[in-house]
Fold these 4 entries.
Entry 1:
Amino acid sequence: MTAVQEKPKAVVPAGPPPRRRGKRATALAGTDKLVLALMLGIPTVVHLLFVWIPTLGSVALSFSRWNGIGGLEDIEWIGVGNYVEIFTEYPRFWPAVQHNLIWLLFLLIVPTSAGLLLAVLLDREIRFSRIYQSALYLPMVLSLALVGFIWQLIYTPDGGLLNSVLGLGDDPVDWIGDSDINLYAVLVAAAWRHTGYIMLLYLAGLKSVDPALKEAAALDGASSAQTFFRVTFPVMKPVNIVVLVVTVIEALRAFDIVYVINKGRNGLELLSVLVTDNIIGEASRIGRGSAVAVVLLTISLGFIITYLYQVFSKENRT
């Protein structure tokens, strides 16, 4: 007798596992609500007290004449009189604007170019690159006031490091006291601190560039310089925008270093120094100082809004 062969059973493909119903978000407990309220409420209150309220107060006081003595009832509202005064009758305003523009152009050209060059060199993974990165970024950790103290010792006419290195001991140069050169001497100190920050930004940008783009350019016969300027640098457009905004803000808010050196006088006048001199000076002019502060705020907002527009428009496109 022949064995009856059993027909193989058809294998039924297993379907996808049944989906689990997501658990509904449970209501926060009382302690969680308190913690959340504190985490959101305290930073919000601090931000309002120390940023927005003083900012709006400065905008309002820029339309007034007040010496800070007495109550709010002593404030005299004069409209745009302070703005007319600083633009037409205040002799220190336009030199300060000129110095801020020089500060901005110098930071855009010298530290930015040096930071980009250092980033390109360090991106090649040279030996001891980590040590070089730390050493070059170290000045950024220091405050501008401390940088001013350090370079004040370097620029000291009698026994200063710079005059000694240059062999000018017999006929020393007063790098800080001479109004023709002190601005550029301080700019060198500011650039010494700013270069490390720009280097770090560009180094992060270079690390994020797709290596396939460089390989494709090399296969097309492009040299290293052509690859950088035609492929790598255009791809780093977001980093370039960040560097521009950071440099503009750094140039406009420069205050500590010049105030430490000579209180922003004798060729080192800046808009930030004028704000301080008018508000807390001997003859307190709250309104005029606030008007200068509003001018600074308006210039800064122009670049900040442009940067935010670029960021959010990019997010919307992606």
Note: The chain has one domain: 81-317.
Entry 2:
Amino acid sequence: MEFEILRLKSNQDRRLRAGHLWVYSNEVDTDATPLKGLTPGQQVVIENARGRFLGYAYANPNSLICARLMSRDKAHPIEAPLLVHRLKIALGLRERWYAQPYYRLVFGEGDLLPGLVVDRYGEHLVAQIGTAGMEVMREEIAGALQKALKPASLLWRNDSAVRDLEGLGRYVEPAFGETPALLEVREGGCRFEVSPTEGQKTGWFFDQAFNRDLLMPHVAGQRVLDVCSYVGAWGVRAAASGAREVLCVDASRHALERVAANAEVNGVSEKVGTLQADAFDALRQLKAAGERFDVIVLDPPAFIKRRKDMKEGMLAYRRLNEAAIGLVTRDGLVVTASCSFHMDRDNLLRTVQQAARHGDRFLQALQSGQQGPDHPVHPAIPETAYLKAFTLRVLPGA
């Protein structure tokens, strides 16, 4: 099979040789190998400036990231056997770390399958494609998943905004099998029901599971506030772990309906309440009402999606943490998280510290967390290490 060639400019192969998978359009020698003639998703060979083979990739001439490397082996282009092989390697990792089949099965670049995310809900799979290259291979991906796992169903949840950057349309449709209206997730001895079509992501946030595990031994007998609760992963688990009372806050009515349903499924309805409101508004209301909580969880959406949002986003993180710290009882705990790649770990901790000092509080950082092992970090791609979480003890100022 003949492949078009993308030749890089001089010295532009360093990142790829270091393990990175992305090629930016300004790194390509477009005089020697023009991008304009390529079709979005087309497979290409990447060469360095001297014509040395670097790997097989798929290209998109309309994207800033104009190519994503998938194979460095000249004998193995991007075909079905490669997809099956990568899926089996990804499955091996999850089966090694997880006792039950509820996890992110494929995490894009972290599993050397850039542009593809697959979440596993027992015998059902929900997948998201974010790039033109993976969209072109959609049928091959479905076949590879059938071969590697033999799932009962696969649902394409291809409705994320990231597809717009690749010139892709948005849709939600079955690939094969029948996906139930509600999928089951089991985590920490609890059972949750989530919607694969109406919820965020694919219905569940698997990335925080290990961080939730770290908190649960410390909530017994405590009053817990779960801010940006979504369907109640933190809050319902806290109630099931012995918290005396839990309040889940979210702006989405649908999400809070699922909180109530999940609380009922786990037999903790009497301990779990909900408040529909914007996070900042809710914290102001609770302060005005004189409410106090022993444990507060802050798991907001990304406030910093682009580098240019940095200043405004950091202010939002500070305001959110400042408001929450003002509601914590003496010697209480705050779990604060950020899924913004541009908000690095040191900046997050520094921002929370500034929020605490504004209220004359003293913080002790007790635990530091990241995404779980089903979201493996690619050491050469910092963007894959996006989740930060801290468990903090809050004391009077000293």
Note: The chain has ten helices and 19 strands.
Entry 3:
Amino acid sequence: MVKQTIAGALIGAGVMSGAWAQSSVTLYGSIDAGVAYISNVGGGTTWIEEQGNTQPDRWGLTGTEDLGGGLKTIFKLENGFHTNTGTLVTSLFSRQAYVGLSSDQFGTLRLGHQTPFSFDVLSPFSTAYLGQSWFAFHPGNLDELADTLGVPFDNSVKYNSPNWYGFSFGAMMGLGNTTNFATGRRMSYALSYANGPLKAGATWSDENNRMVSIAPTGIATFQGQPSATYVADKLQNMGAGASYQLGKLLLHALYTRTKLQSNGHSDTFQSYDAGANYQFTPANSIAGGAATTTLAGKRWTQFELGDIYALSKSTQLYANVLYEHGSSGTNAAFFTAGVSSSQNQVIILTGIHHSF
């Protein structure tokens, strides 16, 4: 990724008879736009200008200050926006905003507005991530694989350990900032492994008083609440995934399970996801996968096939074809595409992505 970096110089004439440590700030971002055909929307079909398909459109600032002895100050401010309208997704740095310390020996500690380990650890094993198609995330994103509104933990403290023989772990807590410690509290834990061609990870999280919209799945009422404003007394999210590189072929698989509880009710959202990527040439790769998801007796099964062609290290052209079928009395419900007017839905899209 080509980045613009502003590097601070060592100050010869120190302030307060001392010298400033070397620091740097990097501006980075991602812009993605294209055209998509979506079937069975409101009884018909629609053509849209889509954006953020391969990666969410965003820009951010990240920086470090070397404190010496392997210790650094770190920070990140990341904003999401809509390329097709130029508007913010929500508030200015809704994706991430944190500051912390990083040590080669002891690991990294961050404080602020941060993504949970379901996004950090599990998402990279999903068909949506590896197939580079936003629509391929599981219906409603209830397993928090995508960084959408409400997924990052507010008021959070997050720790990542150093790597020991391929293993690393993480722990995270989001405080509710109320007089009742349990109200709004969110916790997340992770264990990861990476060694040669094998990568694997597992996560578990527990969230109190979590508002999450069930409406994108097409379910109108859930556990006695309107699905658009559903609040779980307790949401427990777990999953495990792995990938293995065999020359030009990458195989990947992922399982996620989200337990939703409110007003004495309990339901489980489960997804099984698997696929493969093949690098035909240094510039061209094919990615495909499938996932099946269940919730409250309903099932959604989806398939994705995509081609990504790199014009450079920073710019890619892409094309994706996706199909989803809803069964057990439900319609198809591709993530962010809108609930289908039938059990089936097809998305065909093409576009350009640039990172800086």
Note: The mean pLDDT is 92.
Entry 4:
Amino acid sequence: MKFPVLYLRKGAERRLRAGHLWVYSNEVDTVRSPLTGFEAGCQAELRSSLDKPLGTVFVNPQTLICARLISRDPSHGMTPQRLSQRLEIALSLRERLFSEPFYRWVFGDSDGLSGLVIDRFGDLVVIQISTAGMETLKETIGRAVQKLVRPSAIVFKNDGKMRVVENLETYTETFAGTEPDVLTVRENGVSFEVPLAGGQKTGWFYDHRMNRQRLQSYAPGKRVLDVFSYVGGWGIQAAYAGAAQVTCVDCSAKALDAVHHNANLNRLTNVDTLEGDAFDALKALCDEKEKFDIVVLDPPALIPRRRDQKAGEQAYARLNQLALRLLERDGLLVSASCSMHLSQSALVDIIRASGRKIDRFVQLLEQGHQAPDHPIVPGIPETDYIKSCFVRSLTGFF
């Protein structure tokens, strides 16, 4: 198939040759290949300044990331057959990893499908498209998913903020079957029901599943505080594992209603909730001299952009200091981050500094990462974003 050609500036191919898949608009030779000559979502052949073929890409001339690599073979575009093959390869990994169909089936660039996320919730599949290139294949994606797993329902939940960046309309629609009101999730032996409409992302965050599983081993008999709880992913699993008492904190009343619902779903009577801003709630608990055996911090991305680095790191530091103050003399802090711009080592250093500031001796027991249904591509640092630290805090040790 003959594609239009997108040329790069001199030297701009270095990052691609190192393993990345994105092209930025300032890397394009707009004299040889004006971006205005490409339609949003079209496929093109990518060439270096020396006219060497680099592969095929999806193009969106209106965005900072103006091209995303499809294949390193310049003659291979994204056909229905290639799309289906990549979906099948991604599916084979998840089916090896998990005994039940509750996982992230497709994780965008990590599965060679930039701009596409697919989550499975038993017999329901939720799809999110965030790029113009993938939007052109919407029907093809729906049909391929239907053929591969034959779910009872397929829902396109295309309401993410990245669609605005790509100049795409936001919408939610049912491709097949009947859209349910709630998602059913099973994770680490625990059941959840989550509202589909208005929920976060596809409705659930599978990325911390292994870290939540590790929490279960620490929870029996402990008093646990789950901050930024959403619908109780961490807290309900701690309660299920035998925690003496769990308190979930979130600013959303609807999310906390779901916490109570999920506690009842699992026949748990040891879960309560606290509505409010996390910083304010933690400070109030400190003022009231409350103490917990375990505090879990899993905030939203506090460093969404690189320019937010300083303010975001300060916010992480305030959270960790407040959480450490709330721990018993020998307590456990589980400090997590989904900010791609915050490295694992930076999070550890924030915890170290927080411990010193309030005179706590801290021991790093475990470090966690994202679950394997969110594979990391070493050449694409953006695919490596989840981190967690399990930290023992001791008072009066030195």
Note: The chain has three domains: 5-71, 80-180, 185-394.
